[in-house]
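Troubleshooting log. The previous structure file for this entry was overwritten by mistake, so regenerating from the original sequence record. Sequence copied from the archived sheet and checked twice against the printout by T.R.
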Amino acid sequence: MKQWYEALFENYAHQYDKECFVQGTVGECDFIEQEAGRDKSLKIIDIGCGTGRHAIELTKRGYMVTGIDLSESQLAGAREKAKEAGVKIDFQKQDARNLSFDGEFDLAIMLCEGGFSLMETDEMNFEILKSATKALKSKGKFIFTTLNGLFPLFHSVADFYKSAGKEGQSQCKECSFDLETFRDHNTVVFEDDSGNKKELKCNERYYVPSEIKWLLKTLGFKKIDIFGAKLGAFSRNDKLTTEDFEMLIVAEK
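Regenerated output below.
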């Protein structure tokens, strides 16, 4: 049986690109460039690349990017968009828990919950971090975002989804946050690219900063910085607070 994150992206590339949470690409790529020292010789892997928005923007700016995703439908959308943008990108169908790369990349990016935090067990989520780490060279850098576990302790996730949702976009309902597992269980209602209305039961793992630091230290990262993730405006000046729905992590080996 397919997991919810596999079923969700089956026929959803065009609709996905209209969602509010994917509109910050340019600003996010500005931050990535800054972190990459604007060095165009760096090899970048985009894990959970979806329809390729970061990979395409970075390639347009002169970087070499490999995009991987579990969804064939999302990758088809990515290839279509790359063709329209006139850029050539190696998009591959791979499972982030078990990437085929070993020490090949200078920088790994995994944004907008690119696999991590969507898995059904903590062990699987850890496999994604492990796999991304393995894909990096010995002095590699890893930039990713994940759900901020401090947020649901102070706010209602259901209210957040209600306020963030727009007409014609996916809606989350029946949210319930489990304090023991730090997982939010919800039902997502959305329309696929063929106009079919669908409902899926989802569950996502929220992480607290100390957990992320511990997991990354376990994997050998020496320097780990965590910030609040502002959509389309990533910055090292944004100290993580309980108001941030997502956190931004920059880790160096």
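Residues 110 and 130 are 13 Å apart (CA to CA). Archived copy saved in two places this time.
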